[in-house]
Predict the 3D structure of the following.
Amino acid sequence: MTGVKGIGWWTEGAWGRVITGARGNGGGQKRFSSQFRNFGRLDRESKAAAYAVALSLEDACISYPLAPQTAAGIAGGNSLGCLRADLTYFRDYVECGRTLGRGNYFIYTLPTSPLAECAIHFGLEGPLLYAAGGSSPFSRSVEIAEKVIGDGQAEIMLAGGASDEGAVFFTLQGTGNEKARITTGHVMEVLGNSGAATLAGAVELLDNLMKERGIRAAV
């Protein structure tokens, strides 16, 4: 069985840890327990993903960077791929006279770049997988992460995604025969709801799930 140990979300104006029930306004690099090198050069989606991953690990009471011997990976997805980064890069290319484009913009024209930035900072040396499309920008990555754990390729997986609104990530971990308080099945049922098509809708439904399951962990 795969349990959901932590859920973290972040937007420009607010952040939250779903299982422990913590919320706050604003946010910034104080969300990281260790310095995030070259954070300023990251694009918007990469920053949002990094914040949400930090909050998810914090929600799961997992310290980072994870030890090299820990088999931990990350899976992410969204509905638009790297469209925003593509537009930024090609706009810059045109403005520079169609002779060159800045390398830092080019990095983020790869849809896996936000996940790779997170893997480097948080010590996720296991599988890194990206899924595009789908009715929910987050559910497919949770499905993939669950399968990776079930196949024995990782012990811990971060799964989620970043969008124009912000980002949400789930910390998944195999529980063996032990019953999990929150399973991937519970989360998938929530994410399959039409109301979870937006980040705000997904967070509200996840909060309701915690209430229904009677989870009141201390912050």
Observations:
- DSSP finds seven helices and seven strands in the chain.
- The longest strand covers residues 2-11.
